[in-house]
Each structure stands twice: as C-alpha cells, then as structure tokens.
Amino acid sequence: MSPFKAYLIDKADGGPCGRWSQLTEDSLDPGSVTIRVAYSSVNYKDALAATGKGAIVKRFPCVGGIDLSGTVLRSEDPRFQEGDRIIATSYDIGTGHHGGFAEMARLPGDWLVPLPTGLSLFEAMAIGTAGYTAALGVVRMEENGLHPANGRIVVSGATGGVGSLAIDILSGLGYAVVALTGKEDQQRYLQDLGAADIMLRSALDLSHVRPLERALWAGGVDNLGGDVLAWMASTMKQNGTIASVGLAASTALNTTVMPLILRGVSLLGVDSAYTAMPLRQRVWSRLAGDMRPRRLASITRTIEFDALADAFEEFVAARAHGRVVVSIHPEA
Amino acid sequence: MTDFKAFRVHTIDDKPVCRFERLGLDDLDPGPVVIRTAYSAITYKDAMAARGIGKNVRTDRPCVTGVDLSGVVVSSEDSRFVEGQSVVVTNYKLGNDHDGGYADYARVPGDWIVPLPDGLSLYEAMGLGTSGLTAALAVDRLERAGLTPASGPVAITGASGGVGSLAVDMFANRGYEVVAISGKREQEAFLKRIGASRIMSREELLSDRAPLASSLFAGGLDNVGGDYLDRLMAHIKPHGKLAVAGMAVGAEITTTVLPLVLRAIDVLGINVSRQLKMPERQRLWARMATDLKPAHLADISRPIPFDDLDRTMDRFFEASTIGRVVVEVGSKAPR
Known about the structure:
Radius of gyration of chain B: 20 Å
Shape of chain A: globular
Number of helices of chain B: 10
Order of helices and strands of chain A: EEEHEEEEEHEHEHEEHEEHEHHEHE
CATH architecture of the largest domain in chain A: Alpha-Beta Complex
Helix content of chain B: 25-40%
Oligomer: heterodimer
Helix content of chain A: 25-40%
Number of strands of chain A: 17
CATH topology of the largest domain in chain A: Quinone Oxidoreductase, Chain A, domain 1
CATH class of the largest domain in chain B: Alpha Beta
C-alpha cells in the first residue's frame, strides 16, 4: 500500500492548523467507495477550517476539503463501479470525514453524485459547493414562483464563489441581475459574469432602513446576513423571494414582519450540506444543462495542490474572488 | 329603496367617532354590483379602525367599516353577476377606503367579488372571511413547499384568535399534530376541542433562548410576530417551514439567520390583501368549502346582533375574543 499526500487539519496549541502528511489507504475513514481524487476546491468554509478561524472541523485530525471530484477505484456499493466519475460535496466531508485535500478518498456511496453528462471533473469543482449552493438557491426560488418576468434580482457578496456563480447562473436563465458589492475595483469582473447593474455597498445607508422601502427586487440571493439581509427584505416587491445562503457579515437578523405580511415576501433558507439526494442530483443535472455556468473560465483560478495553504490566507483576508480549483490528479 | 342601517367611522378632530346611521344607496361608494349584506365579521383591523389605532381607515370622509361581507346580489351592471346570486367580498379597499360590510347594503366593483362556493352558507363564509382566507393560504403554501402530516408537529401562535383557531382546525383536520401556542390557559379546552393535540404556554415557547433551539416543529403559523416569531424560527426542524401572517404582539423581529442558513428553514409571508390574485382567491375559497372546510366552524365562530357591534370591538384589545365574531347585519339571513 503506497502512501499518498494529504492536507491534514489537526489540533495544535493555538487551535486547529493544517499540515502536509503522508497517509495510506487504511488510514482513511470507512466507506464503501474508494476514489482517486482529480480535483478539489477552496471554499470559504475550507479556509475557516484549515486556519482555525471558524469552528468547522468536528473531528481531529481530519483531511480538509469539503468538495472533491474523481474516479472510482474500488466500490462495494452496487451503484458505483471502477472508472465511474463522481462528485462529492458536503455531508461530513472535510469536517468529520477525511476530505478532498488528498490524492485518495473513501466515502459512503450515499454521498456520491455521478458526474452528469455535460460536465468535466474540472468543471464540477469549478462549481463545487459554492456553485451548488447558488444553484440550489435558484431552484428553490423558482419553485417558490420566481420567474425572469417578475423583475430584477439582487445578489449580495457578489464577488465571492456563491455570489459569482449566482450571477452567472441567473443571467444565463434570463434574469436581470444587480450585483451588490463592497469591492469597487471588481465592477468589470461582475459585468463580465452577466450582472446588468452594479450597486456599491458604500452607496447604501444601512443604518436607516425603514420597514418597507421602495420595492425594487423580485428576488434576492444573500450571502451576508445582518443589515444587508434586512435591507433586502425591506426592498422586496410583492411576493418577492429571498434565498438566504450565507452569513459572511453577521448572524444577526433584525427586521420587521411588514415585508412578510404586507408584501408576501418569502425567506428561503438554503443549506447545501444535507440536501436530500434526489434534489441534489436534480440540481447537479441542471448545472450540467440549462443552469450551466457560462463564465467558469472568468470565475475560476486553478492552483497546484502544493499551493493550497496560500489560498486559505487569501480567503480569510477576503482578497479572493470567484472560485479556486485545486488540481490533484488533473484529467488529460 | 328606503334608507337602511349602517355603522360608519367618522374622523372628528383626528379621533374616530363611530355611529349607527340611516343611509341611502347613493350615500355609499359607487360600484356596479349592489349587494344586500347578510353577514359581516369583526377582524382586528376593524377594531383598530373603530378605535383609531393605526391607519386602517380613510379619514377625509366617513367610511362604513367591515372588511368582510357575505350577501346576495340585488342588481348588477357587471355581466359576471346576477340578481339573487350569493357572494363573498373580503379585502381590497372594502371597509377601509370603500364602504364595507357594516351596512344593510354595499356597492362594490365586480373584480372584488367571489361567488359563494357550493358547500358554504353565507353565515359560514363569514365564519371564515379574511381570517379563513389567511389560514387557508398558509396551509396551501406550507403544503406546496413540501409540508405533510408526516413531517412532524405544526405550531400555531395566537391560536385562540380568528386566524389561529381556524388554522388549528384546518391543520388538525388534515391529520397534522397541532401544537397550539396560547397565553390563555383558560382556552385550553376550546383549543383541544377544535383539534389541538397539545397546548404550549408562552413561557414554554420563550424559555429556550438559543439561536438554534431544540428542533420541535416541522411547520408553523405565526400570527403575533416579535419574540414569538424569533422563537418559532429557532424551534423549527431542519427543512421545516414557517408561515407568517400577523403581528398582534409586535412588528419587529430580532433574530438570527442561523435557522435559515444552517437548518434551511423557509419563512413564508402570507398576504391576502388586494395583491392576492382573484384566481388564487377563488381557488382558496373553493378549498375552504371542501377539503379545508373547518370541522368545528360552529364552535369557532359566534354570531352577534348588528346592534352589539360597537361594544364588542373593545374585547379585541383585551385579547379576550376567541375565534371569529360574525355580525348579523341583514335580518333573517339563513344560517
């Protein structure tokens, strides 16, 4: 059994911290399917986990990486066979079960999504948990009645992974998307993704938001929480729908029931971690079809496995934008 | 036509003055369909308008209040309605900026009118009214979002009020385990009789202050806002759904996004104002006459004589009113 390279998050004196390690297959967590990892990705959650900035890892030591794509080496699960290409994101991957920052992974078959036709293993990781979350939010908003004819959609945290992919996916579906960002220098990037308009955070006075402000949006994707989410609720049109996908700014939500009871606004919580598998597969097949991102090349940057630790620092310092794919065993 | 009885709210020196008066048809706001009112109801909005709380009624000239009415068409210039037809009108401007249900007659636009569906009497229609429509829309939206009786218990705040008690009945009737949240211990027998499996006190709901409190409910309907809404959100199970229909306690919510982001709960606003499209309105009325028809409507609604209207309003603020109060406007209307 030959050793392979893995990025292990362990407990140190100053809190959790990552280090390179050589593992062997028998040190992987139990699972019915063994996978040769092709790509992983870096999400904000990965950066919080690896740097110990967030209490993400539930068991130490744990190979990080909440996302992976790869090829089945061996399977005791009849649903998967050697050579099958798969995607695995969320569940306990990279937080309580050895994850994607390794050359090899062993996972329960119930966590695996067969790679849908129309996506490469690389594209699957360019999308990753961030893109899956964005797509799940859009699917849920559409199930709640959202349609391009209803009006404009606002996306907060627009330059992040979820925000970038939400803009790309929504504009591809025909929605007019307004990107809300604090990063003045990223306006060109956001336009390239398909944003019809850019709104700067500095132009909003979030300290004086009335219960019902002028109705602007048919829908909203919020990555921030706090004042921005409260503002979004107050500026929704009749029957507007907000997908609440993140809390990058704040866990607080101080608002009023007025948008709910007078404008029929819906707040949909979106959690990518424990989506039921039929919905998960449906979202991935739409990501390979009508919701396929069109600007993955602009959104995504690829790094070598060895450069992983540098990427974490960029995420924590909020310097990163878009998606970072980690190349482990790249496909030809 | 001779003159008839009406209850109007006048604004005199910025204060509401309520009067029973004799009016003629031409004193009413115009509309192509003339209805002889059989029943109206008292909603919280009506009580607020009569007592000058909030801005629920026009102040530039008197208004016949009563946001709900059922009755029979007397004459119609709208080809969709014919003389003798039984109809229901709720919401739009009725009773706040267009003379409403507290008069023997009303004149309204045809676009506001729902033909009384088979399976409901004019009396039952007012046992439901705006409150029933709100409860029905909540059930409808929660189930469309995926809620089923197998998902788990459903919590209802303000359970002894009009919307709350009708919702308790509707959910229980569909097989849900209903937890009625009520500050009124003395209402326990009533709530159990109309279908509640369990009564939870205000203190019990509010005791666990954690942003993610114990997962208790698969679904919920909040009629009161404030702390109750915050705690309901915190107690909803992963992927659970909460409908929000009212703000009897307070409009402000101080809560967190954690139930949304970590438990993927949905918070669905319920709004039956003029924004609820007529086809939806008709569909919900048809459901209230059939599969959503409350099993204990006679228990939940209580008739009062038209003459008792004014003195009954005050009970809404003492929170001693339970269920729906139906106002007998037209005499000898069939139950």
